[in-house]
Amino acid sequence: MASIAHTLTRASRKASFTFTPLRRNLTTATRTRPTASIATPIRQTGRRGYASGGSTSGGSSKIVIPLGLGLIGAAGYYAYSNDLLPPAFSGAQASGLKTGGAFTPTKDDFQRVYNDVAELLENNDYDDGSYGPVVVRLGWHASGTYDKETKTGGSNGATMRFAPESEHGANAGLKTARDLLEGVKQKHSWITYSDLWTLAAVAAIQEMGGPKIPWRPGRKDGDVSACTPDGRLPDGSKDQKHLRTIFNRMGFNDQEIVALSGAHALGRCHTDRSGFVGPWTFSPTMLTNDYYKLLLEEKWAWKKWNGPKQFEDVSTKSLMMLPTDMALIKDKEFRKHVERYAKDNDLFFKDFADVFGRLLELGVPFDKEEKFIFKATTD
Ligand code: HEM
């Protein structure tokens, strides 16, 4: 069997599956943040808000300000979780909180949002040690509802804040990511949810060792009336025909479908969300082309269990593939691209950055061309 780019042997891989690989790409000399600084989002927001606020100093204000931020945050969170936030089209300029007047955020402001998101991702108590994968999935599900014919759906609007969209089966589990980002939203109240969720997905990809994803702001938050109907996101139990129907509707071709699917190098399935179980790769918090390599190089068989039909790798039985993942090697046209990406990680990164960046822009009437490339915390 051709070798997979892992340093672990198959046996040791199996035995040592509980690693926290995010650390692997974050342990460079430039990364000095101690693990102990990871706190609950709200508390961390208060602390960081104080630290970067810069306008106050002295004893008592140290107590008052975090408390004040905490109260604002708590009120905002209450409004958020009860769908009470002001609806239609709250853009960055709608909140003049930072200056008391119109506030036009700069690239540095967005980089600060990026940094705060990056700081929340690593958490040893969650899944494989990172919220990165579920944050990527939030950005993708917020965007992948786009319909190029009716020009509805897409990342503009962040309508997954509202039922019924938040309750669509495909979005099960994404509350975790939305709640995680709520502290960042309260701290940088000028940013729209729709810009925040997509920026956070970019941060997650970059922080998990993926390519730089050029990103631009300009999304506005919509209201509940802009929720998309159920059924616009792909169903993992289906085949290649379904994949083409869903992704062609967004405007993506075969090569782009395969490139986007490489995100399944990340994260895992959860029985209490999709019903499926397990990760696709041995390093679910590192973006690599391993998904394609494993698809081609491992033997896959139906998993014998009492759950939805899925595949497992024959040799370790610790990895999974959905029927839609297997469709990428069953279908001749899709398979060509799987083979290209399995051979060439740089090509995968280049194509992934391009198509993921465009996915996050679906349905957004931008008025600016300029895109930002954010510094990763490891840069
Ligand atoms: C090709 C069609 C796709 C299907 C059928 C599909 C289906 C699924 C399913 C069933 C899960 C498991 C959810 C759970 O139980 O927590 C999942 C997770 C995930 N998907 Fe996809 N997906 C597709 C495409 C994509 C794309 C295009 C991206 C991003 C570019 C993506 C990113 C992810 C990530 C990062 C996770 C892991 C989430 C976590 O660990 O919580 N998927 N997907």
Automatic annotation (TrEMBL):
User: What's its EC?
Assistant: 1.11.1.-
Q: Which PROSITE patterns match?
A: PEROXIDASE_1, PEROXIDASE_2, PEROXIDASE_4
Ranges of residues in domain Plant heme peroxidase family profile: 174-364
Region Disordered: start and end of each range?
23-59, 213-239
Q: Which domain of life is it from?
A: Eukaryota
**Entry's SUPFAM superfamilies?**
Heme-dependent peroxidases
Name the principal localization, coarsely classed.
Answer: mitochondrion
UniProt record, GO biological process: cellular response to oxidative stress; hydrogen peroxide catabolic process; response to reactive oxygen species
User: Which one of the record's GO molecular function terms can you name?
Assistant: cytochrome-c peroxidase activity
Q: Which GO terms describe its cellular component?
A: mitochondrial intermembrane space; mitochondrial matrix
Similarity comment: family membership:
Belongs to the peroxidase family. Cytochrome c peroxidase subfamily.
What is the name of the protein in this document? Peroxidase
Q: Which organism is it from?
A: Tuber aestivum
